[in-house]
Description:
Elements: H1 12-15, H2 29-38, H3 54-66, H4 77-83, E1 93-94, E2 97-98, E3 109-114, H5 125-138, E4 144-147, E5 156-161, E6 176-177, E7 193-198, E8 203-205, E9 212-214, H6 215-227, H7 254-263, H8 272-295
Parallel strand pairs: 3-4, 3-5, 5-7, 8-9
Antiparallel strand pairs: 1-2, 6-7
Helix pairs in contact: 5-6
Amino acid sequence: MGVKKKLIRAFQEIAEVRPTGKGRSNKELKRVQDFLCRFGYLKKRGFKAGTLDKKTSEALSHYQRAHGRRVTGDFNKATRDQMTTSRCGFPDMNKGIEFSTTCAWDKTDLTFTFDVGTNDVAGQQEFDAVRSAFQSWAAVTPLTFREVGLGDAPDISIGWRPANDPDLDMRGGTLAHADFPPACSVVTNSLPKPVHFDDTEHQWVIGRRPGGFDIETVALHEIGHILGLAHSNVAGSVMFPSVSSNLTKRSLTADDISGIQNLYPPVAVPTTKELLLQRLETIEGELAEVRNLVGTLP
Length: 298
């Protein structure tokens, strides 16, 4: 299990780019433009490489707004610091248009399986952490998640992969990736839908540890995508696109719950009063039938 590690600083190539103002040229800025293309803020054509032109400035403004930074349209230190934080490999935008909640599964009983784990933690702790993440989403939706075998046609497959995963490249600072449900998939066209963790460039841990990333924290985020949620611009939410090492975020926020319940409305549970009134109506109906029957007797 696992692959040889080569731990990195997230998006080191961005960290080396000096701040650049609108209209200025800086050949290193092409790295920032590549980053903006990779995560959906900038189309691959229509901008001048190495120049902070109008299109690049607009893309930077979108990025700053989405990450709670002061919107300037410049490439400044605050923006550079945000870009060099480890993050999900999923784009924030689709061809310059923000994702919202996308689509839901057409069923509420979903199955999942595990394939390859990681050597970073003992035993099968990584799988237990993912199971806990599934239960957090189950607690606020009508969804159920059943673990099945690899050969049982699962809906979702979870595993650890090299950073250059053929599904979606995770090299350079992305922690993991997933996909949306089948009706709006953007990564794969078939089942099972992937939840893949980068096992080349990051250290996986249970809980908080300097330089390590908590498995349950990242799994909770990626399962949100599998269920149909896009990235959120609410800092502190599970679906915010970036996360630091030495941190746990295992509880869904109001923003996360609101988003998932828009896709999967909770089943209303009747109150005791409502149940009693329903029972009373049933009894009254039965009594009416008895009266009618008695009225027909000689």
